[in-house]
Write a structure and sequence with these properties.
disordered C terminus, globular, mainly alpha, 3 helices, about 110 residues
Amino acid sequence: MNGDDRWPDVLSRRLHATLGNRVAVVNAGIGGNQVVGPAEYSPEKPFPGGPSALARMERDIISLSGIRTVVWLEGTNDFSRNGNASFEAVRDGMRQGWSGCAPPSPACGWWAPR
């Protein structure tokens, strides 16, 4: 536990070994997070996974400077007992998230689920 052994930590070590300090890895992950849920999130209505990925796109990706690549691993928790989302809802949510992420941010627009 807390052994810096999550995949972003491993990626960071590998990139630093190759590129030195010219690269940084930002892990903005939230355990239990969902793409399309919860429908509402606030201090008065908390949810174990926090606000939806769509609600976090601006804060966690778009507003950061110097981003060149994004690995957006989302959707798994949408299909859990807490999520109970349909494939279509998650697919559409991911499309919506990336449609709002357009140039001038070079990190966005390189791939979108079909």
